[in-house]
Write a structure and sequence with these properties.
- The chain is α/β, with parallel strands linked by helices.
- Helix content is 35%, strand content 20%.
- It folds into 3 domains: 49 residues, no CATH class; 282 residues, Rossmann fold, CATH 3.40.50; 98 residues, no CATH class.
- The strands form 4 sheets. Strands 6, 8, 11, 12, 13, 14, 15, 16, 17 and 18 form a 10-stranded mixed β-sheet that branches. The protein has a 4-stranded antiparallel β-sheet with strand order 3-2-1-4, with no helix packed on it.
């Protein structure tokens, strides 16, 4: 466009075609003479002579009210559930307002997901951003659905029922297939979360540029519910790899200078503008917790998408192809998995007094058992000491009984009981990371304990 005055970056545009059809667009660049408008939909039918362009005078905005709960929208925030448009209580730009670091409240309340490998060893905290690193063929969507079911019901929540707050789910799908989208929609119905869920769907055959707007609309809805109406909001973003591929595709079309593996050099900043919208604000009761799901191409955790995501977020849950092949569900590999905010959400009054010690001991024994598998492949089982064979069997039992819990969720007490059951197969003297009074209290005087001694 030539001769446009007072235009702003990111301003929304309406393209009016001669046949009466309308297309949406967005300003992506401007100078003294020109404004570059990127059409967000199919450009077929646009001609130079008769097409008119109307500038909205503002960036992309979303109409917000509590009526968005239970609704479905496309990736650009338009209703797709055949219901009337949302009557807005207010309008908010989808870019979001950066949280004042001084006003951020330190996350301290755990979320019970029902998955022992997360609750016991990588605890998720309200206000945290904890991505799931998956790979092609691994059950990331099933794990996300299980977290949704358990977190939505509050089963096993350490907070008393009177202290539990309003809960909502915001689900943003980017570039996923219709089959995957249908799976999540069925899970919302199955879990009873449909009435307090807001769904944004950008499927694989939808416009690529719309994929860049989808997580921003979703997070705008989440911030509104959390910080203006006091909801604890769980945001599921899938698949962030599709989002980054769309970012690369658009950057290539704009002839921008490519960075690593042709992704744009500003991808780190762009991802941070999404992930940093999670958190809690002092004086406001709600929270935004993010659970991004990304697919690692070729199972490569050093790929730019998981690499940059790991730098920005507060840990990661890594899925293992080897565990999946062995029929273990959920196939969470606890050694590379991490929750950097775990210590803020566990302990007396939150989970259990022995939580930190049990987690450390389970991790240490499992790490030793995994290492002994490599040694066993060289020297054979007969070449191992009895203490080494015991740790080797512990690692197998840990994967089979603690990690491999199946689709049935566990409460916190069930998670700790499963952990102590494994630890009681080891001699007391080997439990060096747990306080002595906890060992005495939970080790037990039964036959299993005497046999281990």
């Amino acid at each position: 466009m030539e001769g446009v005055r007072r235009v702003s970056m990111g301003e929304m545009v309406e393209v009016l075609l001669p046949d009466g059809a309308r297309r949406r667009g967005q300003v992506i660049e401007f100078s003294d003479r020109f404004a570059v408008v990127q059409v967000l939909e199919e450009p077929t039918g646009i001609d130079v002579r008769e097409t008119r362009v109307r500038f909205a005078g503002s960036p992309a905005r979303m109409p917000l009210s509590l009526d968005i709960l239970g609704r479905r929208f496309d990736g650009a925030g338009n209703p797709v559930d055949r219901l009337p448009p949302v009557l807005p209580e207010k309008w908010k730009t989808i870019a979001g307002t950066p949280m004042n670091p001084v006003a951020r409240e330190k996350p301290s309340r755990p979320i019970v997901t029902g998955i022992s490998a997360i609750d016991g060893l990588n605890t998720l905290v309200r206000g945290q951003k904890l991505p799931i690193f998956s790979a092609a063929g691994l059950p990331a969507r099933e794990i996300a659905a299980q977290i949704l079911r358990q977190a939505g019901t509050g089963d096993g929540d350490p907070e008393p029922p009177t202290a539990r707050r309003k809960f909502a789910v915001v689900f943003a799908a980017m570039g996923i297939t219709f089959r995957e989208a249908s799976f999540f929609l069925r899970e919302f119905e199955r879990s009873g979360a449909a009435g307090h869920a807001v769904v944004f769907l950008n499927l694989a055959d939808d416009p690529t540029i719309e994929r860049l707007l989808t997580p921003r609309f979703a997070l705008t809805a989440a911030e509104y519910l959390a910080f203006e109406h006091g909801f604890d909001v769980l945001v599921i973003l899938t698949d962030m790899t599709s989002y980054c591929d769309a970012l690369r595709e658009i950057a290539t079309a704009r002839e921008e200078i490519p960075g690593r593996r042709s992704y744009p050099g500003y991808m780190y900043t762009d991802l941070a503008s999404l992930y940093e919208r999670a958190g809690c604000i002092q004086g406001r009761p709600g929270s935004v917790t993010q659970l991004p799901i990304l697919t690692m191409p070729d199972d490569d955790i050093t790929h730019p998408v998981p690499d940059l995501t790991g730098y920005i977020t507060e840990g990661q849950i890594v899925l293992s192809r080897d565990l999946h092949r062995n029929g273990i569900y959920p196939p969470v590999d606890v050694l590379p998995s991490l929750s950097r905010l775990m210590n803020l959400g566990i302990g007396p009054g939150k989970t259990r007094e022995d939580h930190r010690g049990v987690a450390d001991q389970l991790y240490a024994c499992y790490a030793q058992g995994r290492e002994l598998r490599r040694l066993e492949a060289i020297v054979g089982e007969e070449g191992l000491l009895e203490s080494d064979r015991r740790l080797r069997r512990f690692a197998d039992a840990f994967e089979r009984e603690f990690v491999g819990q199946g689709e049935q969720g566990r409460t916190l007490e069930e998670t700790f009981e499963a952990g102590w059951k494994l630890l009681r197969t080891l001699p007391k003297g080997q439990l060096t990371r747990i306080r002595a009074e906890h060992v005495v209290r939970h080790y037990g005087d039964g036959a299993a304990g005497r046999a281990a001694e």
